[in-house]
Amino acid sequence: MKQILALTVAAGLLWTPALAEDAPETEMGEGLSLMEEGARMLMRGLMDEMEPTLEALRENVEEMGPAFAEFIQSVGPAFGDLLEQVDDLRNYEAPEFLPNGDIIMRRSPDAPVWVPEPEEGSEIEL
Fold first, then answer.
1. Beta bridge partners of 65
2. pLDDT value, residue 2
3. Which of 5, 57, 62, 122 is least crowded, fewest Cβ atoms below 10 Å from its Cβ?
4. Collapsing DSSP states into helix, strand and coil, what is residue 66?
5. How many CB atoms within 10 Å of residue 23?
6. What would the pLDDT profile of 78-102 be if each residue is shown by its tens digit?
7. How far is CA 52 from CA 29, 43, 59, 62, in A?
């Protein structure tokens, strides 16, 4: 995948000067048109190579769509509650899974102090 990304970036870099300059029909102009054609061939090759993978991904997403929607409906509210109780997930260490099934999320020692916002109706009037 990194190779495909690198080739795409390289093609983009080669493509930009070819489009930016309107060189006269000299050796430089012919060289740029050859580079442009090479970039086009490279992009066509990349698209042809990636087309089956993208098609399989589309099919998988269509296949998993209903199950994913059901998962979001069942887990979504609980995840929303969790996000209300933590400030930023980057301030926490990786979760620890205990043998009894509990999951512990420890706050990083270098994380800033966090004070949760009080819930509506939970304030005590003095």
1. none
2. 57
3. 122
4. helix
5. 14
6. 878 777 777 777 888 998 999 999 9
7. 36, 15, 11, 15
